[in-house]
Amino acid sequence: MKQPSKYGFYNPGPILSYVERLRLRYSTKGNNSLQRSLGQYLTPAPVACFMASLMKMPRNQLRLLDPGAGIGSLTAAVVDRVLSMQTPCKSVSVVAWELDNEIIPLLLRTMRRCHEECRNQNITFSYIIIPEDFTETGSQAVFDLEAGNESFSFNRAILNPPYRKITSESAERLALRHIKIEASNLYAGFVALTIRLLEKDGELVAITPRSFCNGPYFKSFRTLFLKHMRFRHIHTFNRRDRAFADDGVLQENIIFYAAKNIQDQKEVVITHSEDPSSDIAPKSVVSHEDIVSLSDIERVFHIPNNDDDKTYRLAVAQNAIHLSELGISVSTGRVVDFRVKQYLRELPNKQTVPLIYPFHFQNGYVVWPKPHLKKPNSIVKNSVTLPMLMSTGYYVLVKRFSSKEERRRIVAVVFAPSFTDAEKVAFENHVNVYHVRESGMSEILAKGISAYLNTTMVDKYFRQFSGHTQVNAADLRMLTYPTINVLERIGSKIGQNYPCQNELDELVKRELQNGASNS
Ligand SMILES: C[S@@+](CC[C@H](N)C(=O)[O-])C[C@H]1O[C@@H](n2cnc3c(N)ncnc32)[C@H](O)[C@@H]1O
After folding, report:
1. Which protein residue's CA is at the shortest distance from atom 12 of ligand 1?
2. Confidence at residue 95, expressed as pLDDT on a 0 to 100 scale
3. What is the helix (H) or strand (E) element at residue 449, kind and residue range?
4. 454 phi and psi, to 5 degrees?
5. Does residue 211's CB lie within 6 angstroms of at least one atom of ligand 1?
6. Per residue, what are the HEC states of 215-278?
7. Contact at 8 Å (CB) between 352 and 438?
8. Which in 19, 45, 80, 302 has the greatest CB count within 10 A?
């Protein structure tokens, strides 16, 4: 394998160069809707090479698993890597699962090419292509393996799994559940099966969305992962890829290299690049505890991009108070506007109360009403809408969806009741609302929480565990906060003119330090 340019991705070897030509031809003439339904996004050669370069190669036998193999780009990259070594292993066997009959002839061509190149270097090569659903026959293979039948066990695996939600009664979910794997997305199911099919000290490299790093849907996946595996290298991309779009929420992708050996992995290499075509930034090394603390019951995976990120994480961790300890809750706004269209009004009148959307957020506060934007400002108060309303008071609101261009992921404002006589207020579903038992809180506490959330420190911390632009109430519940006293002191310093980012960061930092020295 050729060496990378300074920090760049590796250049493809002969087999992958051949497969890449197949890929480019296939991508342009493929049946897009079928490809989409199968989550069929084939890995570009530079990324496949990079992934293969991460693995340690076994000395004698390489037994490789490639589930959801597509045209075999990942296998090709691994075999190229073997062939480029001074003392390559003696034999290579590959088991590739691929459901799509149309693509299998190309996968077959890749395998034949691998066979030919290996034969030229006196390396034994064998392969099996299983044209079946990996969740089904893979689960059976796990079952057999764990019952003592070792027909399928692997020492290396490489995968770019299909990405699709799987509902709780789907065939895939039931097959996985049969061997006690709970996965809400196909990709997590593929990785979980792969882990179970690896032997001790086995290694895997995968490219997946980043969504498994946090959130309740992937908790059982994270628990399974940590039961068996430790990360060795994590690479993050800045670009969110269409390939991993989830209901319009674009995901960042990551490549991770992990080993089935939980004893000896203390350090993890972190690298980062804008996208697959750009250079890789210099690596940093963090401890495995920096990624995930084994005392964290949520098992959230944090991925720092650099040393600054580590500092931010430690700074947030020092604020050890959870929202529930502050007596505060956070939930999504209750008004789903298209369900109550008939009660929405562009302008307020005697029958209405304010309805707050993200477009009302401005410089740290809610500015209301904002007419002429073709969006409602108000909702009629009646017996249907009453359960959706809250008492007027001071609240902290956070946007649920920030645009990619927005500087911060967490955008918080204070809702102050001063601009309305209404006794009730409504929050639309695109905002998260901090409240005290469904009511508001003191002005200085609301200002303090909102200022804390708007700091660079919290934003950088948040980005380490969230790979998309969505901010869920569950994420905000997971953050830790300073004490009420410190929050109120911060809040008491926030006036009508909201401080600029630097001032805000300095102000919060100062009050956190004062809080620490007073305690
Ligand atoms: C994201 S693509 C990646 C392909 C290939 N690994 C690569 O990196 O280029 C996922 C592949 O999994 C296949 N696939 C989807 N569902 C599958 C299933 N249940 N079992 C086996 N293969 C599946 C798709 O046809 C597709 O080729």
Report:
1. 68
2. 98
3. helix 443-453
4. -85, 5
5. no
6. CHHHHHHHHHHHHHCEEEEEEEEEEECHHHCECCECEEEEEEEEECCCCCCCEEEEEEECCCCC
7. no
8. 19
Q: Coil, strand, or helix at residue 311? A: helix
Residue range 14-36+43-228 forms a domain whose CATH class is alpha beta
Q: Which two tokens stand for residue 67?
A: 């589930």
Could you tell me which of 71, 180, 85, 56 has the C-alpha nearest to residue 129? 71
Cis bond before residue 282 (omega within 30° of 0):
no
Tell me how far apart the alpha carbons of residues 169 and 172 are, in angstroms, rounded to a whole number: 8
Which residues are within 8 A (CB) of 483 and not within 5 positions of it... i.e. 6 or more apart? 321, 515, 519
What ligand 1 atom has the least distance to the C-alpha of 38? 15
Please report, for the chain, the start and end positions of each structural domain, with discontinuous segments joined by +: 14-36+43-228, 324-518
Strands 198-209 and 252-259: antiparallel
Q: Which of 34, 49, 100 to mutate for ligand 1's pocket (most ligand atoms within 8 Å of CB)?
A: 100
Q: Give residue 406's Cα distance to chain centre.
A: 18
* Token pair listed for 328: 């505060």
Please give the angle made by the CA atoms of 303, 305 and 307, to the nearest 5 degrees: 110
> What are residue 374's phi and psi, to 5 degrees?
60, 20
Cα-flanking dihedrals φ and ψ of residue 126, to 5°?
-140, 155
Beta carbons of 76 and 111 less than 8 angstroms apart: no
Ligand 1 touching residue 100 (CB < 6 A)? yes
Token couple for 279: 């250079």
State if residue 69 touches ligand 1 by the CB under 6 angstroms criterion: yes
Question: pLDDT digits over 386-416, tens only?
Answer: 999 999 999 999 999 877 667 888 999 999 9
Residue 435 dihedral angles phi and psi, to the nearest 5°: -145, 165
In this model, does residue 426 exceed pLDDT 80? yes
- Band the pLDDT of 206: cuts 50, 70, 90: very high
Percent helix, strand, coil in the chain, to 5, is 40, 25, 35
CA-proximal residue: ligand 1, atom 13 (nearest): 68
CA atoms within 13 A on the CB side of 34: 10
